[in-house]
Design a protein that fits this description.
Layout: H1 4-13, H2 21-27, H3 29-42, H4 77-85, H5 88-95, H6 109-123, H7 125-132, H8 136-160, H9 171-201, H10 216-226, H11 238-242, H12 254-298, H13 306-325, H14 327-353, H15 369-414, H16 418-449, H17 469-504, H18 523-539, H19 541-581
Length: 582
Amino acid sequence: MLSKNTRTRQLNGTCTSSVDMELFLHYSLIPSLFIILILSFLQRREHRRQRDDTSYLLGNRFGIIMPLDFVGTFSNRWSYGIAFGATANKVMFLFSEGYQPLQIPQWAQAFELLIGGIEVGLSHFPFFACLSSEFQLVSSILGFCYSLIWFAVTVLQVSQCPHGQFVGKYETLMFYWPSLLCLAFLLGRFLHMFVKALRVHLGWEFQVEEKSVLETHQAEHVKQLLRTPRPQEKKKSWFQTRIYEWDPCFQFPSRMIGTIVLAFICLYLFIVIEFCVFVYVRDELDVFENKLESYITFTNHSGVLTPVILQVKELISVTKGVWVATILPASLTCVSYLFHILVCYRKHIKRLWAGDKLFLPLKFHNPASSASVVAIARYSGWQIAYVLWGYLIIHVVQSLCGMAIMYGLVLPIVHNQGLEMLQGLGIGILTISIVVGLMILQMWIAASFFLQPKLGTADKQKPLALNNRKAFHNFNYFLFFYNVLLGLGACLSRLLISCLLGTWLIARIDRTIMQNGYEGADMGFSAWIGMLYVDHYHTNPVLVSFCHILIANHKEKKLQQTTKYWCLNQSAEEHGRVKHKQ
């Protein structure tokens, strides 16, 4: 009899859905372009072209619409973030290079990926355009209908083939529930926009005034700078001191919120895909183990290869157990990195606002403007890719560490070799302790005999002035040969520590893992720095406040001039009427 899970897999192996999501993605470009044309027709251009240009025939219609402001948008942030989350499944297809809309030669693979990325972006463009459009009554209807189409097609795909060939029951639902949740949120958001816009259209609510250049939190930040610093009254908690403290005068831009939301969902999908691959590999290994077991049974445990086969089976069993056990710590590591990226963004951008660039390498103090503009376009996509690849690398490294622990500590005890293991462990710890002790002894001898006394009682350490020079030179000569051998171990430890830190921090795009002087080779870190500079130059609260004051003064002067001309016209008309009566 087959197990229930096996029957489910076989059932879904023959399941064919009536919805081809890749084909639907192609056809979704038709309503997407239709919505873009409608919103572009409603959008008026601010500056009309010259009369000799044929575009004047369009009047001031068909303006350029944008999905969202990647630099200065602080309102509606979570709606944009959820809209990014709705694209997670398609982003994962692009990441795995599984989506290939065209059949082109291998050397032109980059162009195919570019075309696929543009197509995915164009198919999801209406979500963002409808959220950011000024014509909320029309855009809410269009956005709701478009989101409903995607939601219905995704539900149909999941309902027809809910199970899969790897995990089994509800495998398809495991892949698509984040997108369904995001689409459901967008449906509610567009419905809320429609109700609000309809109330304004009917006159039941007042139209919201024109959005100011200066955000509320930016104004509060400037006010805080102008206030006299007060002594801290309330003691901060451990969480506020060590992890995060909420700042009412700071808000993350929509780009950062959307990047983090999409990174979370893509990381979840990547873990699910990895687990499906693991299930497939595990099943193949089970078949291989059954063959090995058949050989052992056939030879009645007396074959020449029996000891090797037993070790191979043990290796397979340990590897499977360690890989599953390290999924959780690797996932938590990457999740903590995503939260830490937000913390570092706020810390770094505030230091740039204060004019502090000491945390940056010297070559990044004045980056090229073009490089910074390109960096802000690269950052979000690169951040997600770094997190996904970082998870896989961290998982592999943690699995290798787990294998070392299993073979070094656990398996010897299982095989009744605990005493030998403890003996070897004790010898290793004693050797390392002696080496470290000799290094500490060198430091103590140098501080006690080869340095002159302190100049003052308040000094923390002795001055760097040699004492007992003859003894020092003998000390240096005899330790020269020993330190050659010690340097070999120090070199290997340096290599090991660099590899461990490099792989552990590979997902951290906010800090470089390169040596000092080679930071420019870290393209991810360069993208982070360029993104920070663009945000610094365009969202600095002091600069934005200054621009707000200039704009307000300009409007006030314009209003005064308009009032003055109106008064002159009124007085001229009155004078004309009086003169006419006379």
